[in-house]
Amino acid sequence: MKSTTLSVGAPIEARCTKCRKNTGHIIVTMAEKDPVKVQCNKCNRQHKYRPPITAKKPAGRQTADPKVAERKEWAVLRPGMNSAEATNYSMTAAYKVQALVNHPVFGLGLVQRVAGPQKVEILFEDGKKTMRCK
Length: 134
Hints:
mainly beta; five-stranded mixed sheet
């Protein structure tokens, strides 16, 4: 969409202040070689030219998918769990860290931490879930 010579009426890629996205624009006014005012092709709003924003590269190494790490943690902890000792999950019950819970949908889980008032974080086979409690 870039034009080699910029002039009034030429298409240009710019950041729209209303759409908040990089969209196609038409140059409305120029100052020497730089566009000053543009009109968005999507919302038809005229605004000051803002160059398009490029996606930022993540700094450093990519972190692993947290779900994969949670499943690995589950695989390590599962052999030591006795499902007969698990209590059935209830939103009105109070739970302590390391307590075994049997949930009707998610299955067997281990309370990892108390996440705040009336919330616990439980590790299930599918991953960690924040659940309501007393």
